[in-house]
Specification:
It contains two helices and 32 strands. Strand 2 and strand 3 form a beta hairpin. 19% of the residues are buried. By secondary structure, it is an all-beta fold. Strands 6, 7, 9, 10 and 11 form a five-stranded antiparallel sheet that branches. A five-stranded antiparallel sheet has the order 26-31-28-29-30, with no helix packed on it. A four-stranded mixed sheet has the order 14-12-18-16, with no helix packed on it. The chain is elongated and about 110 Å long.
């Protein structure tokens, strides 16, 4: 029972309902909704505007509310359509109604709205023309949400978005760093959302600021060189792997050198010959005096090295010290394969996984070794 209506709208009423769409409902099917109000002793009142929904298989249809659609199932072939959009009053002829946009004549039952509509409530209908016959649909309405700004620091996704639309923010890839979490202002994120590398959220009715926070994956390695020859392996390397950047120039003398196989780089008064250092390779470094330096960079995630038949200059690709028995070869070690240390100690492969040492033999991170093998293949190390 509704009381008499007044300026407080106490005599107005509404109801809501749900409709379960059949699983086999076709894409684009129109579901109409219209109500008839019947008060005792009064004539029936048909609601206006009518309302309808369209079936869509899209994952988030609310993210694209920019296209108007209407039912054409009863229209004769050759019918054309003109969409009129206005604001101010549902009655297009009312004094406060203002037409904002009108489409060109259309042959399809959809029309993409202009992208520059201001926020607010809009009303629209369709004029249908077939020959000399003209008709007009009911009046419908839609809302254009306010637009707000998303500012993403250290990532992508910055822009202007309408309220309730979907927004995705993604952190940049940073050398030596790994994405940790999002700092947010203007939106409350769950603990799970803060950790999402690809963050999907619904735009609130306000501006949002997001900052991608990283944790460092860089590590350091100290290289201590004694006067004379040193066999070295690099566990940590920066993005710029040139000798000038990794070794630097302090503590070195003219004609100090770095050797890998047949490649030789010498030090001059204030620079090195060109050479790029690599993880998993051994280098012989000759210095005139004791010196040391610290490298900051990234480790190598590999636990294997490709080796050729014959001599290979190798270093551990990770930070796990191993014995020769810990190693495996994709083709298999052969009797007589040998690993040599810088001090002359060696390990010789016998058979059935057995090695013969001429001393206590371990392969250590940061050291270089020479491996002679009869078979090319993949040398595998235990994982960290």
């Amino acid at each position: 029972l509704l009381p008499q209506n007044d300026e407080t709208h106490c005599g107005e009423g509404h109801f809501t309902f749900r409709v379960k769409v059949r699983d086999d409902a076709p894409e684009g099917a129109c579901i109409n909704a219209e109500a008839i109000i019947d008060f005792d002793g009064n004539g029936e009142i048909t609601t206006s505007p009518a309302w309808f929904n369209w079936v869509t298989r899209a994952e988030n249809p609310a993210a694209d509310a920019t296209t108007l659609r209407w039912d054409t199932s009863d229209d004769a072939a050759g019918t054309s359509y003109v969409v009129t959009v206005w604001t101010g009053d549902p009655d297009q002829t009312a004094e406060g109604a203002t037409v904002t946009t009108t489409s060109d004549p259309l042959t399809a039952n959809n029309w993409k709205l202009p992208s520059d509509l201001a926020a607010g409530t809009y009303y629209w209908n369709v004029t249908k023309t077939n020959g000399e016959t003209t008709s007009q649909t009911s009046t419908w309405s839609f809302d254009v949400a306010e637009s707000h700004i998303v500012m993403v620091t250290n990532g992508t996704g910055s822009g202007t978005y309408k309220t309730n639309t979907a927004v995705t923010a993604t952190p940049n890839e940073e050398p030596g760093k790994e994405f940790d979490y999002w700092e947010a202002d203007g939106i409350d994120l769950t603990d799970e959302q803060k950790k999402e590398k690809s963050l999907l959220f619904t735009m609130p009715d306000n501006d949002v600021t997001l900052t991608a926070v990283y944790r460092s994956t860089s590590q350091t390695q100290t290289i201590n060189l004694k006067a004379g020859w040193n066999w070295v392996g690099f566990q940590v390397l920066p993005e710029d792997r040139s000798l000038d950047n990794v070794l630097g120039t302090n503590g070195f003398a003219i004609n100090d050198m770095v050797v890998h196989g047949n490649n030789i780089a010498r030090f001059y008064e204030d620079f090195w010959d060109a050479m790029e250092l690599e993880h998993g390779k051994a280098y012989k470094i000759k210095v005139a005096q004791d010196t040391s330096f610290v490298i900051e960079g990234n480790t190598d995630s590999r636990n294997s090295l490709e080796v050729k038949a014959g001599w290979n200059w190798i270093a551990l690709p990770n930070n796990v010290a191993v014995t020769p028995e810990d190693l495996s070869h994709s083709v298999g070690f052969s009797t007589g394969d040998i690993i040599i240390k810088s001090n002359g100690e060696y390990a010789t492969y016998l058979s059935d996984g057995l090695w013969l040492y001429n001393g206590e033999f371990n392969l250590e991170p940061g050291k270089g070794y020479k491996l002679k093998t009869a078979n090319a293949g993949t040398l595998k190390f235990p994982e960290e």
